[in-house]
Amino acid sequence: MDPNDILREALDNKQLDVLIVCAPCQPFSSQNRFKGEDSRENLILESVRFVRILKPKIILYENVPGLAGQKFRPVLAELVFELESLGYTCINAADFNVPQRRHRCLFLASFGKGTPALPPPVTPIDKRHTVAEALQGLVSLQSGQADDDDPLHFARNHNPIALERLRHIPKNGGGRLSLPLHLELDCHKDKKGYPDVYGRMKWEDVAPTLTTGCTDITRGRFAHPEDDRAITLREAARLQTFPDNYKFDGNSSQIATQIGNAVPMKLVEALAPALRRVL
What we know:
Low-confidence stretches: none
CATH superfamily of the largest domain: Vaccinia Virus protein VP39
Strand content: 5-15%
């Protein structure tokens, strides 16, 4: 993609206000099972091509915390060097006010000296929005059931062995370590890794980080706190702070991907005033 085409056809040759960069997070993620070199880690540097031509007033990078780790310091250092050579000031930010334990690396760059003054965390750690608050008012469902009034609030039709496992996992925060031996997966026997698989969320706590597999109990702590099923697309959307009238597109798998990959809307809402002041 040529940034000159965007400048001409989408921006009518005017300067861009905000560029948001969401490069693939898999290379920087602790869950990445590919231990060799991952060529995708350099895709974040492709943004410099667009910055050079579009000259955005503010740039917001969103990714997993691993991007700021020791292993990827050369990539981040090169990014900072390139941006600063183009006249940008770079700062880091933190995540807050989402009913989810979604630690992110937020990296801001602004042209010239107008560095955004970021707001403090909106709520104290002991008063964070909980799973119970996020899912309040939604109809209780069992495997295979659906809410006729909400096309996104339907439960996956789990197979019998999955339901048997869920029945043995304690309500409100239980995990797979409570399974009897005959229900343990062979790959989990005598292993303590991936404890969140088949795990339930906890009503009075925040949710774990939602991923593209957020409606699959084999992909993380994505079981409902009480019902024997995975969370629904509506519940996942609520935990990502999407309003119920937000329109998604595609099939169930595609919508789960959109939800899992999203920047929580409450996080963007909290950052927006700081960006607006700079603009």
